[in-house]
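Notes from the 1:1 (GR / supervisor)

We went over the backlog. Supervisor wanted to see one worked example end to end before approving the batch request, so GR pasted a single chain during the call. The sequence is below; no edits were made to it. Supervisor asked that the structure be written out right there so they could see what the output format looks like.
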Amino acid sequence: QVFGCMRKEGLQVTILSTCPVAEYKTQESTLTLPSPFLKALKTKEFKEPLCCPLLEQPNIVRDLPAAVLSYCQVWQIPAVLYQCYTDVIKLDTVTVEAFKPLLSSEILKSLVKDTSESTKILKKLLTTNEAHNNIYI
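Structure output shown during the call:
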């Protein structure tokens, strides 16, 4: 529905997603992998340089990120999915910081004004949100 309201000419899509590192398939032990880490998938129309290595087979992406990337592939829209594999269940500053290399990408560079305060702002946002996620008994 979102894409139905947008012009497809000149459109470029960037998808950010996280999932547990336990879902990452590799021949080496996932215990030795530095967590969090990024992998990318892209449509064939996406020509920009990637900020991380491509996701290797037999790994898969599912749910909404997969649906958006598939839609972009079918409609020939340049798109990239950055999948962050993390060992935490709840979003934290370390996981969010794994996406920091994307701020220097061509498509996102124009949106970023100053990254010097980004860590401080992220901590504040996550700490504020944390208070709402607690259950008191």
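Supervisor's comment: The first strand starts at residue 13 and ends at 20.
Batch request approved.
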